[in-house]
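Anyone? Bumping this.
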Amino acid sequence: TQLLEQSPQFLSIQEGENLTVYCNSSSVFSSLQWYRQEPGEGPVLLVTVVTGGEVKKLKRLTFQFGDARKDSSLHITAAQPGDTGLYLCAGESYNTDKLIFGTGTRLQVFP
Amino acid sequence: DTGVSQNPRHKITKRGQNVTFRCDPISEHNRLYWYRQTLGQGPEFLTYFQNEAQLEKSRLLSDRFSAERPKGSFSTLEIQRTEQGDSAMYLCASSPSGRGPGPGELFFGEGSRLTVL
């Protein structure tokens, strides 16, 4: 059973548009990671957020961890076709050594 | 290449047959994870090892599934009496430990895609 719900499930946009992906849970996480996965490959880590309210920027990508450490968002500015992929959030719970992945958001950016 | 390696990349089998997947983690990583992923969904946790010890196994995992990591290096995941519902991508990941609690960053292999006919 997935504990992390992502929305939207699918997103199809034109190059240059902005978008936000949400990752929500009823559980509290000690940290939250965001991964991107391309077809035929495994997920690759983009960022880890640890502190409630933390904001991290990676070029055109902005990640935020909710104050209560139950949710997170990923905002992409001026999307490019190279941003196309499956975006996954993954929560790390206290007292466990496993990551729980979200349901995923598939992003398609058209030129 | 010193990344996580998985074999075979693709496996097609008939229902009822047994299949085995192998994962070679990054050499200095002592944590190894198995996940299952269906198309367009997030990976679902199956089990993980710290060195050769299997420390957690998902309650959702049928007893037809078994994983081993006998020498704390490579791992195998065996599925007995496969069913069509077992069709999925099986992902292996590794991570170093000793940097604090929790798994930290997971380094994934390219996966082994199973199709059960």
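Late reply, but here is one note on the structure posted above: The mean pLDDT of chain B is 92.
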